[in-house]
Amino acid sequence: MPIHNPCALLDRLLQEPNESTWLEFKVNNKDPREIGEYISALANAAMLAGRDRAFMVFGVRDGTRDRVGTDVRLQQLKNGNEDFTNWLSRMIEPRIMLDVLDFECGGLAYSIIAVEPSYERPVKFSGSEFIRIGENKKKLAEFPEHERSLWIATGRRRFESAVAVSNATTDDVFAKLDPDPLFQLTGDPRPNNPDEIIRKMIEYGFLLDNLEGRYDITNLGAILLARDVKMCPSIAGKAVRIVKYVGRDKSKSDFEQEAKEGYAVGFTSIMKFLMDRLPKEERYIGGVRRMVPHFPETAIREVIANALIHQDFIVGGVGPVVEIYENRIEVTNPGNSLISTDRILDERRSRNEKLASTMRAFGLCEERGGGLDKTLIEIEADHLPAPDFISSENSMRVVLFAPRAFGQMSKAEKMRACFFHCVLRWLTHDYMSNATLRERFSLAPEEYQAVSAIIAESIKLGRIAPADPDQGKRNARYVPYWAV
């Protein structure tokens, strides 16, 4: 993030109560190697402190904070015959963002280096890693606890924390982001004071104070609250696209719609638009004839929310897609599944933890780990075919199927329904049996043999296993293969 107003930044840094691990004041230190070691130490300290930048300021006396100016001109400095900035970039590993600036304020000369930490691994200078301990620069290897903490911290960096729009004024923020969902979805009262709204957005991680009197909009803030995602280049291709086809293949489309708003702004509208256009059937409910969608709204909501949350934002140019066919819905997100599709109900892993937790706080999806479970429960309650989870190298697709009688299901569909029914029972600390599977398929007791054949084939193929190897057939119970 480039420095836009260095004098405002200097004023803000001098308001810090004391020199911290991410802030260093110097007067006239021109030793390139000493500066390089400080860059490593500041970058690593910023990561541990959760700061998006660290600063080394020349022209301020350490301790007293007196503005004395400096004769250091970083952009003219050399190491041997090589420009200092080129040499420094070559000596720092991995490559990090450095903003090196010489400027004047109040008739005095200053220089500043703004350092963005690495989110890949600890930063080295000339092959060695440094860290700030209090106000002192030390070799990281001398502090193994800090080294371990730093490696953990680098692994926590996510797309959500990166900057989508930098140096935005308050007016820019409100022009690009709609703060209303922040209050409507949480039930918190909306402040009348814009500064308080800004403070709340910073608290949620939607904005960063850039210390220059302006704000940086994070990718998290943009993807959730953008009035139009195309206004933010880093998320421009991440809008939800809905396509409805005529029939069961892609040969002819009925319509295509792209939701331009951020997910929190537009999620309710997306769901209404989608539910109004899903295939429906006529049912009598409480003696009243109603047109009911083929798919439970809760199941649709959770599958779409899951696609938004678990997508890989690094995959460029493509966002979540909802495709409606005559006999199914397919929801696809960029990025493969981080876990095996066989464990998709009981294992938890997310690429985008901040996005997931915020959407849960906003009530846009179930509590952690409950979304797809609830999808399967709703589908079983309506006796629909089990969904299919398809993970490829660069995408994850969930297929929800329209109602189909047991006799119309393929062998693969029956086996899939058996497996996920077994998983759901296991998640409630219970077991699948012939009786529970008959109920799942809406079959009469006398059709137990058809269900027994599915169970036997599932055991043969290693999809399920007897809960007790010595159990008899009369009261046999079963668990997923991985639970044995």
UniProtKB/TrEMBL annotation:
Top-level taxon of origin: Bacteria
Pfam families cross-referenced by the UniProt entry: HATPase_c_4, SLFN_AlbA_2
Transmembrane segments: none
InterPro entries linked: RecG_C_sf (IPR038475), Schlafen_AlbA_2_dom (IPR007421), Schlafen_AlbA_2_dom_sf (IPR038461)
Domain called Schlafen AlbA-2: residue spans: 19-140
Protein name stated in the entry: Transcriptional regulator
Organism: Ensifer canadensis
